[in-house]
Write a structure and sequence with these properties.
The protein folds into three domains: about 10-75, RNA-binding S4 domain (Structural Genomics Hypothetical 15.5 Kd Protein In mrcA-pckA Intergenic Region, Chain A), CATH 3.10.290.10; about 90-170, Pseudouridine synthase (2-Layer Sandwich); about 175-295 and about 305-325, Pseudouridine synthase (2-Layer Sandwich). It has helices spanning about 25-30, 40-45, 120-125, 160-170, 245-250, 275-285, 315-325, and strands spanning about 10-15, 50, 55, 70-75, 90-95, 95-100, 150-155, 175-185, 190-195, 195-200, 205-210, 215, 220-225, 230-235, 290-300, 305-310. By secondary structure, the protein is of the alpha+beta class. Helix 1 packs across helix 2 and helix 6 runs antiparallel to helix 7. The protein is built from seven helices and 16 strands. Helix content is about 20%, strand content about 25%.
């Protein structure tokens, strides 16, 4: 192995000839000596930082033996994450974890460009009992929500509980229910969307339905209410891919209302008939974000086994939007 320059650590690995049919990400996480997790390897693959014989690696690459693998590891960010006195809505708490109702507009954890004002900054102030499994930047955070998605997030108070909750998520043992307003009308009132999601090659900040370098994704939905231009859906996330709900419904031609990244703000509304444009314009003015809320979580408690069901009300902007649409019927 050879180290690289001052910004990225570049590691060259020659895969032994006796290694075959093993996935690249598993091998690098276990046997390469890099001392990084498999999820970290997968993130590096997503970012194009792992090459096989000079070409970007795929998640499902199976080794044949003899390949030349280049791994570029970014330097650790030097950050000073501080507790901040930010009010948070704690809807469940015990000695092991808490559930916070995150408002739209709040970033879940510090990242480039957002090192203050995040949910992590707030929970660091709220309690000193937080899991350190993922470092201070993601202190306690079991799963995340996009900045402009509101709703419930689990925060673990110690590493053991953090691991237990993450395992439940992977095993689909936590029922995560979202409410979303989507553009247009779904063909079926109930359905399942099973389409793989990967990073877009056109815009690396976005995800897309693709079979290239992707991961399986499963979304279930049912219709709750139908309005003049939109459908209100209850959505059960079976997997937790980045932007999963937004990507799946956009792919079907029914983007989440107000979503500027996946066609639910301006793009879809260009096709609205003139007679309906005033209603659409009022709705867009009323809610300047995507109409997506993580409404409830249900799980068996990782310690006591007790069934825990945590629910939340729709935020004011979402409620006002639905009132407008009901009045227009």
């Amino acid at each position: 192995m050879a180290d690289g320059n001052d910004t990225y650590r570049v590691v060259e690995i020659e895969i032994p000839l006796g290694v075959s049919k093993e996935r690249l990400d598993r091998y690098l996480a276990r046997d390469s000596g890099l001392d990084i997790t498999r999820s970290r390897v997968q993130k590096l693959i997503d970012e194009g930082l792992i090459l096989v014989n000079g070409k970007p690696a795929l998640h499902n690459h199976k080794l044949k033996g003899g390949e030349a693998v280049t791994v570029k590891i970014p330097p650790p960010r030097q950050t000073n994450i501080l507790p901040e006195d930010i009010p948070i809505d704690v809807v469940f708490e015990d000695d092991y974890f808490l559930v916070v109702n995150k408002p739209a507009g709040m970033v879940t954890h510090p990242a480039a460009g957002h090192y203050t004002g995040t949910l992590v900054n707030a929970v660091l102030k709220y309690t000193e009992s937080l899991s350190g499994l993922q470092g201070i930047e993601r202190a306690g955070v079991v799963h995340r929500l996009d900045k402009n998605t509101s709703g419930l997030i689990m925060i673990a108070k110690n590493d053991k509980i953090h691991l237990a909750l993450q395992t439940k998520l992977k095993e689909q043992a936590i029922i995560k229910v979202y409410y979303a307003l989507v553009c247009g009308h779904m063909k079926e009132e109930k359905g399942t969307i099973e389409l793989p999601i990967g990073r877009s090659i056109k815009d690396r900040k976005k995800m897309t339905v693709t079979h290239l370098n992707s991961r399986s994704a499963l979304t279930e939905y049912e219709l709750l209410e139908r309005y003049k231009l939109y459908d209100l859906l209850k959505i059960h996330l079976k997997t937790g891919r980045t932007h999963q709900i937004r990507v799946h419904f956009s792919h079907l031609g029914h983007p989440v209302f107000g979503d500027p990244d996946y066609g639910g703000r301006l793009k879809w509304h260009r096709g609205v008939f003139a007679i309906d444009k005033p209603l659409a314009q009022k709705a867009l003015e009323l809610m300047p974000r995507q109409a997506l809320h993580a409404k409830s979580l249900e799980l068996a408690h990782p310690v006591t086994g007790e069934n825990i069901l945590v629910d939340s009300d729709l935020p004011d902007d979402f409620s006002r939007l639905l009132e407008l649409l009901r009045e227009s019927l």
